[in-house]
Amino acid sequence: MVLSEKPGNGGARPGGRTARVRTSVLEAAGDALAERGMDGLDLADVARRAGVGRTTVYRRWGSVPALVADLLQDMAEQSQPRAETGSLIEDLTANAHLVRETLAHPRQGPLFKAIIAAATCDERTARALHRFYEVRVREWAPCVERAVERDELPEGTDAHEVVRAVSAPLYYRLLASGGALDEETAERSARAAVAAARAGVYVR
């Protein structure tokens, strides 16, 4: 899947002071999460890092879960758009490389680890994380839908499940096995998802 998941050029941020403050605060929050994890995320510290008044941060976000939810929304909106090459394997390989690059990134990898860990015990963070991935999966699902239209995949293939299958092995390595997050692993994840989809595994 999407994310980037790391910030990209998927959408243009609106201008104005309010938007600049939000951008600065969310960047500071992401830095703090990557460095210290969820337990070390403090609104006053985020305000200091962002160079804004703490009352601004408390008034607009009010709590750490609310700030993290906004951070995830912004990341989903700014993530890089899907590739559409006319080839399912090339599209999903591009997706896998994007996910791998994000999870292996020295800032984004720890950031995602912190958010995922927090989501296991905080319902608001969990909902925000689920929304983030829903946005990214929807962004890439048309690549699979086009493949069905081209008769590359069986009719009734669940496009969302195919996209999820691409990134699942990469997240497993990040969170569980500690295996290498290299380009070969990303390409193998894409090939495995495509092979399973062609075999009808994801037909509803």
UniProtKB/TrEMBL annotation:
Ranges of the DNA-binding region feature: 42-61
Keyword Nucleotidyltransferase: no
Residue segments, region Disordered: 1-20
Transmembrane parts of this sequence: none
Keyword Transcription among record annotations: yes
Cleavable signal peptide: none
InterPro entries given in the database record: Homeodomain-like_sf (IPR009057), HTH-type_TetR-like_transc_reg (IPR050109), HTH_TetR (IPR001647), Tet_transcr_reg_TetR-rel_C_sf (IPR036271), TetR_C (IPR011075)
Entry-linked Gene3D superfamilies: Homeodomain-like, Tetracycline Repressor, domain 2
UniProtKB keywords: DNA-binding, Transcription, Transcription regulation
Pfam families named among the record's database cross-references: TetR_C_11, TetR_N
HTH tetR-type domain: residues covered: 19-79
Name of the featured protein: AcrR family transcriptional regulator
